[in-house]
Amino acid sequence: MLNTVRSLALSLLLAASSLAASAQDGVVYHLDDTSSQALKALRNIRNHLDVDPAAKITVVAHAFGVDFLMQGMKDRSDNSFEGPVAALASRGVKFEICEITLKNRNLNRDQFLQEASFTPSGVVRLAKLQQQGFAYIKP
């Protein structure tokens, strides 16, 4: 009987530890303004992965936060966003664009970098990721 209780307690402890560890690995970065957030976010994500290479990072962009994912888009110093986005995507970072933004701004999917994917609603996606245990960061 005592061995059964110990085994059950150990199993519960291992399951709880596993669940806690997986919840800590997910992070969502929220961007809604390219000019004030994109460079900072890309730098923070690179640093994040340098320290925690196993982190699962998703970037959700909507409103004017989608602009850095557009083909040919450059920062204030005239550097393309394409290289840093591609480098982070190769490290497993997912970049998601709000389709409501596309509709509201009359944008098309083919205007965006190949690393970008699309989600029906950026705000809904943010909420769902947080419900799944993703940490929320807005640079």
Low-confidence stretches: 8-23
Instruction: Please bin the fraction of helical residues.
Output: 40-55%
The overall strand count is 5
Going across the major beta sheet, what is the strand order? 4-3-2-1-5
The termini sit apart by 53 Å
Mean pLDDT: 89
Topology order in helix (H) and strand (E) letters = HEHEHEHEHE
Q: How can the largest sheet be summarized?
A: 5 strands, parallel
The whole-angstrom Rg is 19 Å
Shape: globular
Number of helices: 5
Strand percentage, roughly? 15-25%
Structure classification: alpha/beta
Q: What key phrases describe this protein's structure?
A:
5 strands, 21% strand, alpha/beta, 5-stranded parallel beta sheet, 139 residues, single chain
Question: What's the short version?
Answer:
With 139 residues, the chain is α/β, with parallel strands linked by helices. Helix content is 49%, strand content 21%. About 12% of the residues have low confidence.
Task: Please explain how this structure is put together.
The chain has 139 residues and is an alpha/beta fold. It is built from five helices and five strands; from the N terminus they run H-E-H-E-H-E-H-E-H-E. It has helices at residues 2-25, 34-51, 82-90, 99-105, 122-131; strands at 26-33, 56-64, 94-98, 116-119, 135-137. A five-stranded parallel beta sheet has the order 4-3-2-1-5, sandwiched between helices. Strand 2, helix 3 (82-90) and strand 3 form a beta-alpha-beta unit.
